[in-house]
Fold:
Amino acid sequence: MALVARVIRDQALDLMFNQLSYTGASITEKIRGIHQAREDIKGAIRKLQLKSTILDGDDDDSSVIFQFLRTLPNLQVFEYTQIDLLVPPSEVFQLFDSIRHAPLSELFLDTGIYSFTVEGPPVEGIASLEKLSIRWPAGDNPDVPGSSLHHLYCLIRTSLGTLVELTIENSPRNLGADLDLNLLRDAGQTLRVFNYKMRSHDEGVLEAIPQIFPHLKELALTWSRITVSYSLRWKDSYIPSLTKNRNLIDLRLSSDFEEDLDDAVRADEDHAWYIRCYKRRLEATKKISEAMPHLRKCSWLQLRVGHYGGSSMTHPFVVEERAPNHQGAQLVLVVRGVKQNWMGANERSWGKTVKCKLEDLPGEIIGENDPDADEDVRVWAIASMASPRSYLLWADMVYTISYVISISLNRTLDVKRHACSLRSRYNQVRTRQFWLSQNLQTEQ
Structure:
C-alpha cells in the first residue's frame, strides 16, 4: 500500500507541477513562494515560463530567480521573457549558469524591448539544445566593434550540432550588420525550422540559406530595416532561390508589395486597400507554389499596416492537392486563403461599400466552418475570429490564482485539481493557437 501511495503521489505531483508559468509585474514574489516547496515538487517541474512585465520598484531581485533555477534538477524547457531589465546584461551569465545543470532541450530567451550594450566577455550558451529562440536588442560595446553579434553567436554555437529549431530576432536600436549565417553551418544537418528577423534588407540570405541549411521544412524571414517604413520589396526573381529549399513545406516572408506601386494605406481600416494587398500576395503565392509543388503553407507578414505605421498583419495561404478532372492527369495544386479578421462582411470605406464577404473574394477562402478544409486549418480559421492573446492571459491568470490558493490553503485535492484542469485547458489553447498568434493574428 505504501508503494501504491507513493506512485499515486508522484503521478499527482507530475500532473500538477510538470509545467509552471508565472507572468506579471511581481514574478519574483511568486518565485519566492514556490522556491520554498519540497524537493519532490521541484523535481516534478519539467517546463517553466517566466514572463516579467513592467517592474514595480519592489520586483527587482533577480537573484531569487537564479537561486530557484539551480534547484530544478529535471528542467527540460525554459522560457524567459522580460520587458524591463529584471535581468540586466551584466547578469546574463548568472542566468545561464543557473540552468547549465539541467537537461534542457528547449530554451526561449527574450531579453526585453529596450536596447542595451553588451558588457564583459561573451557568455557561452547551453549545450545540446534542440530548440533555441533568442530576441537580442543588444548594441556593440563602443570599444569593441561587432561585439554584440559575437555575444549572440556564443549563445548559439554550443548547440549547433543538435539544433532542430532556431529563432533569431536581431533587433538592436542602432544600425549594425546582421549575423553571418555561415557561422551556423554546423547546424546544417539537423536544423529543420529557421525563423530569422534582420535589421536590414539583405536579399542575399535567400540564396545562402538553402546552402547552409539544406534540410529545412519551415522557414520564416523578416526584413525590418529601421531607416525605412517598409520591408524588403518582393521580386518574382527571388523564386528560383526559394526553390532550392527542396524540403520546405511552410514559408513565411515579410516582403513588401505596396512601396513600388505607391499604394499606401489611407486609414486605419482601409478595407479596399486590405483586399488589394491580399490579392497581390495571393498571386505571388500561386507563382511560388508552381515552382515549389511540395509547399503547403505560405504566409506574408505585412509590416506597418496602420495609418501611422504602428501595426502589422499576416496574409496566410494554404496549398491543397486536388484530384485531376480526368483520369491519368497529375494532381492539381490550389492556393486558398485563410480567413482574416477583416473578412466576412461588407464594409463601408471612404463612402463606398467594399465587398469583404468570403464568397466575393478570390482564393477560395477557408472559413471557420469550411467542411473541406483540414482540421488544423479550421482551427486557425476559428481562432482568427477570437482573441487568442486575451484568452491565454485570462487562463494564465486564473491558473496562477488557483495555484496560489491551493498552496495557501494546503488543499490537496479540489482546488489543485481545478488549477490543473485550467492549466491543461490553457496549454491546449496555447498549442492550437501558437501558429495563429505568431503568424495569423493582426497585431494592433
